[in-house]
Write a structure and sequence with these properties.
With 153 residues, the chain is mainly beta. Helices cover 0% and strands 52% of the residues.
Length: 153
């Protein structure tokens, strides 16, 4: 295996003392194969009664400090009530248009429009609500443990 020399330390104490620290070359042998997803080929883990869908693409949602990636599908016109998450959500809009508003009370007139290619960061404990204009798929990342607090109606 390939090794990189990270540190070479020489000290002189009644002669010479030398030490070296070697680490494995991170490019020599990948631990996983590359993976990719196309919006039309996502295997949805959960399909909800309202037609929305959720898929965990990689990583555990419940392990503290571990990142995970998810896909969420929201049908045209569907609204998600105000809520917040216990970790930052980083969201990329893949298709459709995400309508995103902020606050503990939904106001459908006060949403920002995020079309395909948009990237949004919703900080943890930020109350927000969303809807879709056109069938909308987002891919997001978060850090576990993941939770969602929904505000009472």
């Amino acid at each position: 295996m390939k090794y990189l020399l990270l540190l070479w330390l020489s000290m002189t104490l009644s002669g010479s003392l030398s030490a070296q620290i070697l680490i494995k070359d991170p490019l020599s042998s990948p631990t996983q194969l590359p993976r990719a997803w196309h919006p039309d080929s996502i295997r949805w883990d959960t399909v909800f009664a309202d037609g929305s869908k959720l898929a965990i693409l990689e990583g555990p949602r419940d392990v503290p400090g571990k990142p995970f990636t998810y896909a969420f599908y929201l049908p045209d016109g569907q609204w998600v009530m105000p809520h917040w998450h216990c970790a930052d959500a980083r969201v990329f809009v893949v298709s459709g248009t995400l309508l995103l508003g902020y606050g503990e009370r939904m106001d459908k007139r006060k949403t920002a429009t995020h079309g395909p290619g948009s990237y949004v960061i919703v900080p943890y404990k930020t109350a927000h609500y969303e809807s879709a204009r056109g069938n909308t798929t987002i891919i997001g990342t978060g850090t576990g443990p993941w939770c969602t607090y929904e505000f009472p109606e």
